[in-house]
Amino acid sequence: MAKQGKRNTYDRIVDASLELFNTEGERKISTNHIAAHLSISPGNLYYHFRNKDEIILQLFKRYRSELSEILNRSETPKDMNGMIDYFLEVFDVMWRYRFLFADVNTLLMRNSELSGEYQNFTWKQVSPMVHTHLQRLIDGGALKGEVLDIDALALNIWLICRYWFVFDGSLNNHQLDEKSKVRGLLQVFNLLRPYVRDEFMAQYNDGLTVLQHRLEAN
User: Which UniProt key words apply to this protein (predicted)?
Assistant: First the structure.
């Protein structure tokens, strides 16, 4: 029974840290803040995590697991509607862990273990899978393009995803809401426009209209 209680405390610390990092900013939150938020002693927190960076590493692993589940699906989008749903799921995950992207370079410089995990995930899993999905859309006839085009497009899509919340927040006095996800997706789809085949252009434009309506909705 005690073992179960320890596991619950561990998860509560990770969950509370994610909430506080997202709402207050990771730099403003210390382990003492987290312990106080949970009404536990700092010593109890340190029993599970030696420092804040260990908590951040666990949150990154959660983010990696959730995003990998989406990226590694055998069934991939075959048209523009599928692409919208697919990338909305990607942005949903990134939104849940948005603190990771608020000052990602500082986090990576501060934590060598996180840096290694992050770079490995980005270059060995995320970038190849984005490229694979784009290639499947080409093979399915929705997109056109050569290998070099798709290499550049996959990289540009990931750069937008990685830095979007920082950029969008800077335009809104560092205030983000969930519509930031839709604004990010619109930017991704603007990158796709030159590659959309003529017979899919009407569907592409309909998708953009749907996204615009989401932005305008209360």
Answer: DNA-binding
pTM of the prediction? 0.85
Average pLDDT, integer, range 10-25: 95
Contact between 84 and 90 under an 8 Å Cβ cutoff? The reply is no
Kindly report, residue by residue over 97-106, the tens digit of the pLDDT: 999 888 777 8
Using alpha carbons, list the distances in angstroms from residue 27 to 16, 52, 100, 176: 15, 10, 11, 17
Cβ 141 vs Cβ 197: under 8 Å: yes
CA atoms 64, 69, 74, 76: torsion sign: negative
Cα–Cα distance, 68 to 87 (Å, whole number): 13
